[in-house]
Amino acid sequence: MMRPRRPSLPLLDESRLTLLSRPIRKRDPDQPSLPFDPMPSRVEPCLALLKPTVPIGSNWLYEVKWDGYRLAIHIEPKRVRVITRGGHDWTHRFPTIAAAAKDLGVRTAILDGEAVVLDERGRSDFAALQRSLGGRGGKRVSTESSLFAFDLVYLDGHDLTRTELAVRRHLLEDLVPEDGDGAIRLSEEIELPAEDLLEHACHHQLEGIIAKHRDRPYRSGRTGDWLKIKCVQSESFMIVGYEQSAVARGGIGSLLLAGRKGFDWAFVGSVGTGFTAKDAEHLKKTLDPLKTNRPVVPLRGKRFVFVQPTLIAEIEFRGWTGDRKLRHASYKGLREIQDNAAVYDLTE
Protein backbone atom coordinates (compact mmCIF):
# COMPACT_ATOMS: atom_id res chain seq x y z
CA MET A 1 0.00 0.00 0.00
CA MET A 2 1.40 3.39 -0.97
CA ARG A 3 1.48 5.91 1.86
CA PRO A 4 0.88 9.42 0.52
CA ARG A 5 3.24 12.17 1.53
CA ARG A 6 2.65 15.84 1.14
CA PRO A 7 4.66 16.83 -1.94
CA SER A 8 7.44 19.33 -1.30
CA LEU A 9 6.64 21.28 -4.45
CA PRO A 10 3.73 21.55 -6.89
CA LEU A 11 5.88 20.22 -9.71
CA LEU A 12 5.32 17.68 -12.43
CA ASP A 13 1.71 17.08 -11.43
CA GLU A 14 -0.28 18.33 -14.42
CA SER A 15 -1.97 14.95 -14.67
CA ARG A 16 -3.05 15.48 -11.02
CA LEU A 17 -0.92 12.51 -9.99
CA THR A 18 0.26 12.95 -6.42
CA LEU A 19 3.97 12.63 -5.73
CA LEU A 20 4.26 9.54 -3.55
CA SER A 21 7.00 8.06 -1.43
CA ARG A 22 7.47 4.37 -1.10
CA PRO A 23 6.39 2.56 2.11
CA ILE A 24 8.87 2.83 4.93
CA ARG A 25 9.75 0.74 7.91
CA LYS A 26 10.28 2.53 11.20
CA ARG A 27 13.68 2.21 12.77
CA ASP A 28 13.75 -0.25 15.66
CA PRO A 29 13.34 1.85 18.85
CA ASP A 30 15.27 -0.82 20.74
CA GLN A 31 18.37 0.00 18.73
CA PRO A 32 20.17 2.85 20.56
CA SER A 33 22.71 5.13 18.94
CA LEU A 34 25.56 2.65 19.17
CA PRO A 35 28.80 3.74 17.49
CA PHE A 36 29.25 0.63 15.37
CA ASP A 37 30.97 2.65 12.64
CA PRO A 38 33.01 5.77 13.38
CA MET A 39 31.42 8.90 11.96
CA PRO A 40 33.56 10.13 9.02
CA SER A 41 34.67 13.76 9.07
CA ARG A 42 33.77 13.99 5.38
CA VAL A 43 32.29 11.79 2.64
CA GLU A 44 33.23 12.53 -0.97
CA PRO A 45 29.91 13.04 -2.76
CA CYS A 46 28.38 10.77 -5.34
CA LEU A 47 28.10 12.79 -8.58
CA ALA A 48 25.68 12.49 -11.47
CA LEU A 49 26.87 11.62 -14.96
CA LEU A 50 25.35 13.66 -17.81
CA LYS A 51 23.19 11.66 -20.24
CA PRO A 52 20.94 12.78 -23.11
CA THR A 53 17.91 10.60 -22.27
CA VAL A 54 16.09 9.35 -19.18
CA PRO A 55 16.89 5.68 -18.38
CA ILE A 56 13.81 3.47 -18.22
CA GLY A 57 13.23 0.58 -15.84
CA SER A 58 11.93 -0.32 -12.40
CA ASN A 59 15.47 -0.24 -11.01
CA TRP A 60 15.63 3.55 -11.45
CA LEU A 61 14.08 6.30 -9.31
CA TYR A 62 13.71 9.90 -10.45
CA GLU A 63 13.98 13.28 -8.72
CA VAL A 64 14.03 16.93 -9.72
CA LYS A 65 17.49 18.28 -10.52
CA TRP A 66 18.03 21.11 -8.06
CA ASP A 67 20.13 24.12 -9.01
CA GLY A 68 22.07 25.22 -5.93
CA TYR A 69 24.99 24.31 -3.69
CA ARG A 70 25.69 20.69 -2.79
CA LEU A 71 25.95 20.29 0.98
CA ALA A 72 26.51 17.51 3.49
CA ILE A 73 24.81 18.04 6.86
CA HIS A 74 26.76 16.40 9.69
CA ILE A 75 24.60 16.00 12.79
CA GLU A 76 26.64 15.16 15.88
CA PRO A 77 25.64 14.88 19.55
CA LYS A 78 26.85 18.40 20.44
CA ARG A 79 26.95 20.23 17.10
CA VAL A 80 25.83 20.41 13.49
CA ARG A 81 28.23 21.05 10.63
CA VAL A 82 27.28 22.16 7.11
CA ILE A 83 30.01 21.03 4.72
CA THR A 84 30.33 22.14 1.09
CA ARG A 85 31.21 19.86 -1.80
CA GLY A 86 34.79 21.16 -1.53
CA GLY A 87 35.01 20.19 2.14
CA HIS A 88 34.63 23.69 3.64
CA ASP A 89 32.62 24.35 6.79
CA TRP A 90 29.77 26.71 5.91
CA THR A 91 27.63 26.19 8.99
CA HIS A 92 27.68 29.93 9.62
CA ARG A 93 26.44 30.66 6.07
CA PHE A 94 23.35 28.43 6.36
CA PRO A 95 22.08 28.96 9.94
CA THR A 96 18.44 28.05 9.25
CA ILE A 97 19.46 24.72 7.70
CA ALA A 98 21.77 24.00 10.65
CA ALA A 99 18.98 24.85 13.12
CA ALA A 100 16.52 22.61 11.28
CA ALA A 101 19.06 19.76 11.41
CA LYS A 102 19.25 20.08 15.20
CA ASP A 103 15.48 19.67 15.37
CA LEU A 104 15.39 16.40 13.43
CA GLY A 105 15.70 14.46 16.68
CA VAL A 106 18.55 12.18 15.64
CA ARG A 107 21.80 11.70 17.54
CA THR A 108 24.18 11.25 14.60
CA ALA A 109 23.57 11.45 10.86
CA ILE A 110 25.01 12.72 7.58
CA LEU A 111 22.46 14.01 5.08
CA ASP A 112 23.35 14.67 1.46
CA GLY A 113 21.41 17.36 -0.35
CA GLU A 114 21.26 20.63 -2.24
CA ALA A 115 20.78 24.10 -0.74
CA VAL A 116 18.46 26.15 -2.94
CA VAL A 117 16.35 29.28 -2.95
CA LEU A 118 12.96 28.78 -4.58
CA ASP A 119 11.23 31.26 -6.85
CA GLU A 120 7.52 32.07 -6.71
CA ARG A 121 6.75 28.98 -8.82
CA GLY A 122 8.69 26.57 -6.61
CA ARG A 123 11.73 26.27 -8.87
CA SER A 124 15.31 26.49 -7.63
CA ASP A 125 16.91 29.81 -8.57
CA PHE A 126 20.73 29.74 -8.55
CA ALA A 127 21.07 33.52 -8.89
CA ALA A 128 18.71 34.07 -5.95
CA LEU A 129 20.79 31.67 -3.84
CA GLN A 130 23.93 33.62 -4.68
CA ARG A 131 22.24 36.91 -3.79
CA SER A 132 21.15 35.46 -0.46
CA LEU A 133 24.83 34.74 0.28
CA GLY A 134 26.00 38.17 -0.86
CA GLY A 135 27.49 37.02 -4.16
CA ARG A 136 30.76 35.21 -4.73
CA GLY A 137 33.06 35.87 -1.82
CA GLY A 138 30.20 37.49 0.07
CA LYS A 139 29.87 37.31 3.83
CA ARG A 140 26.08 37.21 4.16
CA VAL A 141 24.21 34.33 5.74
CA SER A 142 21.41 32.75 3.76
CA THR A 143 18.18 32.65 5.71
CA GLU A 144 16.06 32.20 2.57
CA SER A 145 17.58 28.88 1.54
CA SER A 146 16.26 25.36 2.11
CA LEU A 147 18.02 22.03 1.90
CA PHE A 148 16.42 19.38 -0.30
CA ALA A 149 17.79 16.18 1.20
CA PHE A 150 18.12 13.26 -1.21
CA ASP A 151 20.39 10.79 0.56
CA LEU A 152 21.44 9.55 3.98
CA VAL A 153 24.95 8.15 4.25
CA TYR A 154 25.31 7.77 8.04
CA LEU A 155 22.76 7.24 10.81
CA ASP A 156 23.04 6.50 14.54
CA GLY A 157 26.48 4.92 14.38
CA HIS A 158 25.90 3.07 11.12
CA ASP A 159 27.79 3.75 7.88
CA LEU A 160 25.15 3.46 5.15
CA THR A 161 27.42 3.95 2.15
CA ARG A 162 27.50 0.20 1.49
CA THR A 163 23.71 -0.03 1.68
CA GLU A 164 21.57 0.15 -1.45
CA LEU A 165 19.83 3.43 -2.25
CA ALA A 166 16.31 2.03 -1.70
CA VAL A 167 17.09 1.34 1.97
CA ARG A 168 18.84 4.70 2.45
CA ARG A 169 15.79 6.46 1.00
CA HIS A 170 13.43 4.63 3.41
CA LEU A 171 15.52 5.76 6.36
CA LEU A 172 15.72 9.32 5.02
CA GLU A 173 11.94 9.50 4.57
CA ASP A 174 11.56 8.43 8.18
CA LEU A 175 13.91 11.19 9.32
CA VAL A 176 12.87 14.27 7.33
CA PRO A 177 9.61 16.00 8.38
CA GLU A 178 6.61 15.58 6.11
CA ASP A 179 5.35 19.18 6.29
CA GLY A 180 7.18 20.05 3.08
CA ASP A 181 7.91 23.69 3.90
CA GLY A 182 10.74 23.66 6.45
CA ALA A 183 14.41 24.50 6.03
CA ILE A 184 15.12 20.79 5.45
CA ARG A 185 12.81 19.00 3.02
CA LEU A 186 12.77 15.70 1.23
CA SER A 187 13.65 15.67 -2.45
CA GLU A 188 10.58 13.70 -3.47
CA GLU A 189 10.69 10.71 -5.75
CA ILE A 190 8.66 11.56 -8.86
CA GLU A 191 6.00 8.96 -9.62
CA LEU A 192 5.41 9.63 -13.31
CA PRO A 193 6.13 7.45 -16.36
CA ALA A 194 9.82 7.71 -17.22
CA GLU A 195 8.96 8.44 -20.86
CA ASP A 196 7.16 11.65 -19.81
CA LEU A 197 9.53 12.93 -17.16
CA LEU A 198 11.84 15.14 -19.21
CA GLU A 199 8.97 16.69 -21.16
CA HIS A 200 7.18 17.59 -17.91
CA ALA A 201 10.37 18.95 -16.35
CA CYS A 202 11.15 21.12 -19.36
CA HIS A 203 7.54 22.33 -19.57
CA HIS A 204 7.84 23.54 -15.98
CA GLN A 205 11.16 25.21 -16.86
CA LEU A 206 13.16 23.06 -14.47
CA GLU A 207 16.83 22.38 -15.05
CA GLY A 208 16.23 18.68 -15.55
CA ILE A 209 15.89 15.25 -13.94
CA ILE A 210 18.18 13.09 -11.80
CA ALA A 211 17.91 9.31 -12.23
CA LYS A 212 19.36 7.03 -9.55
CA HIS A 213 19.85 3.28 -9.50
CA ARG A 214 17.83 1.86 -6.59
CA ASP A 215 20.10 -1.08 -5.84
CA ARG A 216 23.50 0.65 -5.79
CA PRO A 217 25.55 1.65 -2.72
CA TYR A 218 26.75 5.22 -2.19
CA ARG A 219 29.92 5.49 -4.29
CA SER A 220 31.91 8.70 -4.48
CA GLY A 221 32.61 10.26 -7.85
CA ARG A 222 30.88 10.02 -11.21
CA THR A 223 30.25 6.28 -11.38
CA GLY A 224 27.07 6.20 -13.47
CA ASP A 225 24.92 5.13 -10.50
CA TRP A 226 23.37 8.60 -10.71
CA LEU A 227 22.55 10.26 -14.02
CA LYS A 228 21.50 13.83 -14.85
CA ILE A 229 19.33 14.65 -17.84
CA LYS A 230 19.00 18.37 -18.54
CA CYS A 231 16.39 20.50 -20.26
CA VAL A 232 18.80 23.38 -20.70
CA GLN A 233 22.50 22.71 -20.51
CA SER A 234 24.33 24.44 -17.68
CA GLU A 235 28.01 23.89 -16.97
CA SER A 236 30.96 25.56 -15.26
CA PHE A 237 33.62 27.26 -17.39
CA MET A 238 36.79 29.16 -16.55
CA ILE A 239 36.86 32.89 -17.24
CA VAL A 240 40.09 33.57 -19.16
CA GLY A 241 39.42 37.22 -20.00
CA TYR A 242 36.86 39.77 -21.08
CA GLU A 243 36.14 42.07 -23.97
CA GLN A 244 36.19 45.74 -23.03
CA SER A 245 33.21 47.88 -23.98
CA ALA A 246 33.00 51.66 -24.14
CA VAL A 247 29.20 51.62 -24.18
CA ALA A 248 28.22 48.82 -21.80
CA ARG A 249 27.79 49.90 -18.19
CA GLY A 250 30.50 48.29 -16.11
CA GLY A 251 32.97 48.27 -18.98
CA ILE A 252 32.56 44.59 -19.91
CA GLY A 253 30.97 43.60 -23.19
CA SER A 254 31.46 39.85 -22.82
CA LEU A 255 33.39 37.26 -20.84
CA LEU A 256 35.87 34.93 -22.57
CA LEU A 257 35.39 31.33 -21.50
CA ALA A 258 37.44 28.14 -21.60
CA GLY A 259 36.92 24.48 -20.80
CA ARG A 260 39.45 21.83 -19.93
CA LYS A 261 41.05 19.72 -22.63
CA GLY A 262 43.35 17.29 -20.92
CA PHE A 263 45.91 19.40 -19.07
CA ASP A 264 45.28 22.43 -21.29
CA TRP A 265 42.54 25.02 -21.75
CA ALA A 266 40.35 25.29 -24.85
CA PHE A 267 38.42 28.43 -25.79
CA VAL A 268 34.66 27.73 -25.94
CA GLY A 269 33.38 31.19 -26.85
CA SER A 270 32.15 34.26 -25.03
CA VAL A 271 29.06 35.27 -23.11
CA GLY A 272 27.60 38.76 -23.15
CA THR A 273 24.14 38.22 -21.69
CA GLY A 274 22.77 37.28 -18.30
CA PHE A 275 24.67 39.81 -16.20
CA THR A 276 23.48 43.24 -15.11
CA ALA A 277 25.51 46.45 -15.07
CA LYS A 278 26.12 45.86 -11.36
CA ASP A 279 27.32 42.32 -12.13
CA ALA A 280 29.65 43.70 -14.82
CA GLU A 281 31.12 46.26 -12.43
CA HIS A 282 31.74 43.54 -9.84
CA LEU A 283 33.26 41.22 -12.46
CA LYS A 284 35.62 43.90 -13.75
CA LYS A 285 36.70 44.82 -10.22
CA THR A 286 37.35 41.13 -9.48
CA LEU A 287 39.04 40.30 -12.80
CA ASP A 288 41.34 43.30 -13.18
CA PRO A 289 43.76 42.23 -10.39
CA LEU A 290 44.14 38.93 -12.32
CA LYS A 291 45.28 40.53 -15.60
CA THR A 292 48.06 38.77 -17.48
CA ASN A 293 49.98 39.30 -20.72
CA ARG A 294 50.11 35.54 -21.29
CA PRO A 295 46.62 34.26 -22.17
CA VAL A 296 46.01 30.57 -21.55
CA VAL A 297 44.11 30.29 -24.85
CA PRO A 298 45.40 31.45 -28.29
CA LEU A 299 43.23 34.53 -28.80
CA ARG A 300 43.82 38.00 -30.19
CA GLY A 301 41.63 41.04 -30.02
CA LYS A 302 42.21 44.77 -29.63
CA ARG A 303 39.69 45.02 -26.83
CA PHE A 304 40.51 41.69 -25.16
CA VAL A 305 41.79 41.72 -21.59
CA PHE A 306 43.24 38.37 -20.49
CA VAL A 307 43.27 37.10 -16.92
CA GLN A 308 44.74 34.21 -14.98
CA PRO A 309 42.41 31.18 -14.88
CA THR A 310 40.99 31.67 -11.41
CA LEU A 311 37.27 32.51 -11.56
CA ILE A 312 34.70 29.89 -12.57
CA ALA A 313 31.38 30.96 -14.08
CA GLU A 314 28.17 28.95 -14.34
CA ILE A 315 26.91 29.27 -17.90
CA GLU A 316 23.56 28.26 -19.36
CA PHE A 317 23.61 27.42 -23.07
CA ARG A 318 21.58 25.73 -25.78
CA GLY A 319 24.17 23.46 -27.34
CA TRP A 320 27.44 23.44 -29.26
CA THR A 321 28.47 24.71 -32.67
CA GLY A 322 30.40 22.51 -35.09
CA ASP A 323 33.70 24.00 -33.93
CA ARG A 324 32.90 23.34 -30.24
CA LYS A 325 31.74 26.80 -29.21
CA LEU A 326 28.77 27.51 -26.92
CA ARG A 327 25.45 28.36 -28.59
CA HIS A 328 23.21 31.03 -27.04
CA ALA A 329 25.24 31.25 -23.84
CA SER A 330 23.93 33.17 -20.81
CA TYR A 331 25.81 34.00 -17.61
CA LYS A 332 24.26 32.64 -14.37
CA GLY A 333 26.85 33.60 -11.78
CA LEU A 334 30.26 32.83 -10.32
CA ARG A 335 30.88 29.58 -8.52
CA GLU A 336 32.38 29.69 -5.05
CA ILE A 337 35.79 28.10 -4.52
CA GLN A 338 34.26 26.21 -1.60
CA ASP A 339 31.63 24.76 -3.94
CA ASN A 340 34.43 22.87 -5.72
CA ALA A 341 32.70 23.20 -9.10
CA ALA A 342 34.32 21.11 -11.83
CA VAL A 343 35.20 23.05 -15.00
CA TYR A 344 33.64 21.41 -18.06
CA ASP A 345 35.99 18.89 -19.70
CA LEU A 346 35.73 18.77 -23.47
CA THR A 347 37.31 15.32 -23.59
CA GLU A 348 34.42 13.68 -21.70
UniProtKB/TrEMBL annotation:
EC numbers on record: 6.5.1.1
Q: Name one Pfam family in it.
A: DNA_ligase_A_C
Query: What family does the Swiss-Prot or TrEMBL record give for this protein?
Result: Belongs to the ATP-dependent DNA ligase family.
What is the organism field in this record?
Rhizobium anhuiense
| Catalyzed reaction equations | ATP + (deoxyribonucleotide)n-3'-hydroxyl + 5'-phospho-(deoxyribonucleotide)m = (deoxyribonucleotide)n+m + AMP + diphosphate
| Record-linked NCBIfam families | NHEJ_ligase_lig (TIGR02779)
Superkingdom, natural source: Bacteria
Group of enzyme by EC: ligase
Q: Tell me the SUPFAM superfamilies matching this sequence.
A: DNA ligase/mRNA capping enzyme, catalytic domain, Nucleic acid-binding proteins
| Span of domain ATP-dependent DNA ligase family profile | 138-262
Example of a GO MF term: ligase activity
Name the record gives this protein: DNA ligase (ATP)
Q: Which UniProt keywords apply?
A: Ligase
> Which CDD domains is this protein grouped with?
Adenylation_DNA_ligase_LigD_LigC, OBF_DNA_ligase_LigD
